[in-house]
Amino acid sequence: MPVSKKIIVGLGSAVLMTSLAYGIGMAQAQEGQLRGNVRVVIGSTSTGGDTYQNASIVVDKLAEHLGLNMKVDAVGASSAFRTLDRDSRGNTLMIFHDQSYLGHLYGVQGYSDIFEQYTVGPTLAINPGNAYLVPKDSPYETLDDIIAAVGNGETVRVAIQPGGVSEIGFSALKNAISIEHPGMEDNLVAVNTGSQADKNQQLFDGQADVINGTVQANEQFTRLPEDDQKAMRFVWLTARQGTIEQAPEEGMGQTSREQLLEYVEPNVHVTMGDDETFTFDKEFFFLYNKDMDAGIVAQIDEALAEIYAEGEIQEIQKRSFFIPNFKPSDEASEYLYEKMSRYEEIIDNIR
Question: CA 282, CA 287: separation in Å to the nearest integer?
Answer without folding.
Answer: 16
